Amino acid sequence: MSPALMAATDLVGRLGPSEQEHLLWARELQAMSLTFHIPLVCFGISFPAIVLFMEGLYLRTGDETYRALAKRWSKVMLLLFAVGVVTGTILSFEFGLLWPNFMATFGDVFGLAFGIEGFAFFIEAIFIAIYVYGWDRVPRKIHLSLGVPIVITGVIGSLSVLTVNGWMNDPGGFDIVNGEITNIRPWEALFNGFFWHELAHMYFAGYMVTGFIVGGVYAFAYLKGDRSRYVRAGMIVPLTVACLASPVQVIIGDWAGREVTKAQPIKLATFEGLGQTQKDAPFHLLGWYDKSTGEVKDAIKIPYLLSILAYHDPTHVVQGLDSVPEADRPGPINTVRFAFQAMIMIGSGLMLFGLFYAFVWYRKGRLPTTKWFYRVAVIAGPLSVVALIAGWVTTEVGRQPWIVYEVMRVDGAVTNAGGLQIAFFVALAIYLSLAAAVLWLLRRLAARPPQVETPGTVA
Prior knowledge:
Blueprint: H1 3-15, H2 20-61, H3 64-98, H4 100-133, H5 140-146, H6 148-169, E1 175-177, E2 180-182, H7 186-190, H8 195-223, H9 229-263, H10 265-272, E3 283-285, E4 288-290, E5 295-297, E6 300-302, H11 305-311, H12 333-364, H13 371-397, E7 402-404, E8 408-409, H14 420-447
Antiparallel strand pairs: 1-2, 3-6, 4-5, 7-8
Helix pairs in contact: 2-3, 2-6, 2-8, 2-13, 2-14, 3-4, 3-9, 3-14, 4-6, 6-8, 8-9, 8-13, 9-10, 9-12, 12-13
């Protein structure tokens, strides 16, 4: 055992065991909260920039259609920001309530990131309110500039949270001496080894999710027969953003996969269900992992592909699940496999869709005419959300049984408090109520004609 793992064992041993019932409900509650919150993070990352781009088109062309879209989207942006405040606050409480040993032990290490997030949040809240209120009340160019801090703080706030997740997967910035966390280096923890690829992967995912969802709404209207300039512009801008991001995301995914291979080889083995360490490792498409045999059953086997994906070498040795004790293997393995395969299959499909769109636009200077293009555009939004959630399941469940990789186990971090079942259903009721309220408000907003967004402006 390495010195780091010996120190970690001593640290975890001091924390004491927790009941599996608490662990199960804590994980379920955290997973549900992240599922509701992460799509809102995508809008926080990318939607302000798309709104500002649309307003910039209005300033450049004077076309009131662009202004109507930008103004309406800014109201949606404000609504989603408000909902994100609620879900983000719940998540903040959950970190402390569900994982008290984790927060008490490592709060000083990554506390700087949460401090930056809080600062960014307050600045964003101020400017998003001014921006939405400022339509028709301030000169046009000044109004556009008021949106710039929203874009910057949206990036900084989400960046801070991503650094913490990256640190959980690649911990650093501290030493463990006699079971105590010492010599804390917060900036080293902030810019950890997983920081850059997680940042890029999540940011391009944000533009894909936002672009495909917003573009899909207008693609649906287009299919219903509304061919107005308002609908066309509302579809083309976000859809173009998403389609340009999707091929780049595949490249970033390859980069992220190779970083995971180096730092967390057991997670890679879980992606594939690779029971035995071997060279010339194949990749199995579909199928399921049989724990009793350590093999993938009823799958399409593609020889050498896992070695190629992980090392860009078809003969390279890939570490299998057999290289660690069963207690140190992620699980459930099939949950990780299914999530990983859903992510890459949907991501690949969206990449092909984006390339098709770019090809037609480049060759003919127009949108594709086939109805299937618009049908796919409609379902691309929900599929991108599925891929997003599947990606986070892959990352988080694939790190199990560690909350801090090879330093603190999840069962050593969880609370021993009861009542988590009640908290789960209370949180579920809150999330469902929020979702219903958002859908109702969005439908009311969509029912208003675009002309209500284009009164006279301040010169």
